[in-house]
Amino acid sequence: MSACLWRGLAGGSGEVVQEYCAGITMATDWGDEAEQGVDRRLVRRVLGYLRPYWRAAVLALGCIAIGALLGLAPALVFAALIDHLAGEDPEFAHVLALVGAGICAAVAAGLIGLAEDYLTERISQGIIFDLREQLFDRLVHQSVGFYTRNRAGEVMSRIGNDVNDIESVVAQTVFGVANNALVAGTTLGLMIAFDWRLTLLALVLIPLVALPMRRAGRRVYAARGASQSKLAELTAYLQEVLGISGALLVKAFVRERAEQERFRRTNDELRYLEIRASMIARRFGTLMRVLQTSVPALIILAGGWLVIHDGASVGAVFVFATVLTQRFGMAAGSLGEAHVNLVGSLALFRRIFTVLDHPSDVADRDAASVLRSARGAIELERVTFTYPGQARPALIDFSARIEPGQLVALVGPSGAGKTTLTTLIPRFYDPQAGRVLLDGHDVRELTLESLRRHIGIVFQDTFLFHASIRENLLYARPEASDEEMIAAAQAAHMHVHRLLARRL
Question: Which contiguous run of DSSP H or E holds residue 384?
Fold first, then answer.
């Protein structure tokens, strides 16, 4: 049963204009997350998304560990081959066995790598699925005020762009840290076994990597946060200008050139921020590549001296300089880059968490009761309501009573409070003072779902989903029969029998 007539017969939407202006002055509920620091609680919360997939994570780590050990096989094979061929009376059968062992190890490592990739991709896609679902659940239950204070494009950017960018973080960075740590650890152990003196020489340059690592991570963190904020701004702008309402305004007031220039400025700012964020990480990567090239040269120089004066193994020195040092350097360098990327990616998680943690202005109370049936008696007791950010109340100490079955028209100029009044009944907003009663029940003491199911609403501005006519007609009651659907269409003077019969 309909409990109210939605909007007044005189129309008017001055309150909506007021509220929209309030949203512009407030900008957004979320603020600038990129400027906030990194804390351990944030890291723990991010890692908490791995808990549902801990079995797959353990298997992935097992694959990483086995792969790291199998990765040492080429170094051992090459060292043994060089020493055997450089010795007296080398045997081809021995060479064949060593080469065969190396090939088998490579095949096994490849298969293990495929299993690892499958597991990490499954985990990352699962986490992205969870984040998208949580974000949508949070957003769909936000109040109407939330959507007037935040542009639709920015909201969509959180659930689209930000979540998509996290995929590489989970699949590559998180498990990449484990992979590179195990590779570096196992390689370091073999390096010490070959020659501890050369190992010490190889480790001298590590502090040169660690010192700029922390600074680079902080800069990438801030740069990525700024890039995502600008991308959200661009997405919101496109959603406004390219929507049907925005496009009509642009054409009606001949603003095409102005909007082109506005888009160019925003797009140029985004380009600059993306280049800046990318170059911060790449400058650090360049430093790592320089170190990875310099270390083998120094190792060969020192190793040559040990071979000549201390009888060191030629095979050990050669493999140490060309295989182990490179392997250790790449793993250590990747760890450094992973740290930079991981710290930078926390800006994305923080943007997502600000949405997940944003409370709803209108929500069910803990002891809210379910409205089983409604007669339709509506009473407003000394209601006062002010839109956020506005100094002048839209309603002041307003009282009224509407009896069941009574037809009421709200008449008044724009800004008088007609739209505001009707939005308080289904609790799109809550008043700051006074009460709204339905059949004697304070609507704040009822669950939102049960309250709104007993209120029929006809909007002043029509909206259709990109679906069939039938699906749009049945949106509020998907379980309604064809007879009920046709009766409703006839009552609204929009019945076209052939179209409905064909279910277009």
Answer: strand 378-385
